[in-house]
Q: What sequence folds into this?
C-alpha cells in the first residue's frame, strides 16, 4: 500500500482564527469538538466553518474523546485532571491523582470498547505556577469502577495514543524520543511487550503528537513536517502536509473518510479512501 491508495484529494481549510487547536473529535450529529488550549475553551465546529463555545473555561483542555455513552472526556492539562461532561452539563472528575499525588498534565485520551479509559500524563504543558508531585511521566488506565492504574512510566514525553482496530495493540507516541511504541493489550487491560514501531525523527519542524488509526490498521500521527501515514508494520507511507504545523487529528464525516487536522490556529480536512476508527 502507498499513500496514493489512501489519499483522495487535497487538504482544505475548514476554519481558522483560533489560538491553538488540539483534540479534535467527531460527534455523530455532524460536527467536531475541539480544544483551543490557551483560550481555555472547547468549541463545537460545524462543517461550514461556524463554531460555538461548548465549555468555557475548559481547564486547559487538550485531548478529547467520547465514552461509550457519548459523554465528552477531556484531558485538562492546566487543571491536572481527566474530566467528563455529563448529560446535564455538569463536570465529573475521573482522575486527578495517582497514589495520593496529583497528576502532571493529562494530554491525550482514548476509550476502549469495554468502557475503560487510557490517557497520557507528561510534564509537557505543566502549569508554571504549580509544583510537580510525580517524578515520572505515565500512561494510565481508568477502569469502569474508577480505579486508576499506572501502565507505563518510562516515556520521555508520552503524548498521543490509539488502539488498533481489534484493540489488541495500543500505540503510544513519545514526543521527546520521536517514535511510536506498540504494546500488546492483555485481557486485564494492562500492557506488555512494548516495542518501537517507527522512528519519526526527521529534518523538519514538529514532534510526534496526536494519533488516530483507520480500519485497515494504518496510523495517522502528527509529527515532523506534517501528518505521517504509517502502516501497521511500521512503514512510513507518506506525509500529509498542511499550511500550518499539525498537532492532532480525527476521522469524521458521514462515512468517516474525512481526516480533520488540528494545525495551530486552524482546522483542515482531507478526504481519504479508507474509513477511520473513532
A:
Amino acid at each position: 500500500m502507498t499513500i496514493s491508495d489512501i489519499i483522495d484529494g487535497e487538504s482544505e481549510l475548514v476554519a481558522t482564527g483560533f489560538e491553538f487547536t488540539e483534540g479534535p473529535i467527531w460527534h455523530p450529529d455532524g460536527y467536531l469538538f475541539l480544544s483551543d488550549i490557551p483560550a481555555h475553551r472547547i468549541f463545537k465546529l460545524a462543517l461550514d466553518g461556524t463554531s460555538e463555545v461548548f465549555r468555557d473555561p475548559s481547564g486547559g483542555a487538550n485531548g478529547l474523546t467520547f465514552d461509550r455513552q457519548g459523554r465528552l472526556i477531556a484531558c485538562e492539562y492546566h487543571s491536572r485532571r481527566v474530566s467528563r461532561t455529563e448529560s446535564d452539563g455538569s463536570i465529573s472528575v475521573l482522575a486527578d491523582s495517582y497514589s495520593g499525588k496529583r497528576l502532571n498534565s493529562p494530554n491525550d485520551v482514548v476509550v476502549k470498547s469495554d468502557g475503560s479509559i487510557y490517557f497520557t500524563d507528561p510534564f509537557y504543558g505543566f502549569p508554571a505556577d504549580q509544583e510537580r508531585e510525580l517524578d515520572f511521566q505515565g500512561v494510565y488506565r481508568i477502569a469502569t469502577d474508577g480505579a486508576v492504574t499506572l501502565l507505563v512510566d518510562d516515556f520521555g514525553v508520552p503524548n498521543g495514543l490509539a488502539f488498533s482496530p481489534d484493540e489488541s495493540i495500543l500505540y503510544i507516541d513519545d514526543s521527546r524520543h520521536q517514535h511510536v511504541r506498540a504494546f500488546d493489550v492483555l485481557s486485564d487491560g494492562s500492557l506488555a511487550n512494548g516495542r518501537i514501531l517507527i522512528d519519526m525523527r526527521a529534518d523538519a519542524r514538529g514532534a510526534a503528537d496526536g494519533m488516530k488509526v483507520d480500519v485497515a490498521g494504518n496510523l495517522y500521527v502528527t509529527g515532523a513536517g506534517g501528518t505521517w501515514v504509517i502502516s501497521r508494520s511500521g512503514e512510513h507511507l507518506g506525509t500529509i502536509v498542511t499550511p500550518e504545523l499539525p498537532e492532532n487529528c480525527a476521522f469524521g464525516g458521514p462515512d468517516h473518510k474525512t481526516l480533520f487536522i488540528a494545525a495551530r490556529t486552524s482546522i483542515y480536512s482531507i478526504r481519504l479512501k479508507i474509513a477511520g476508527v473513532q
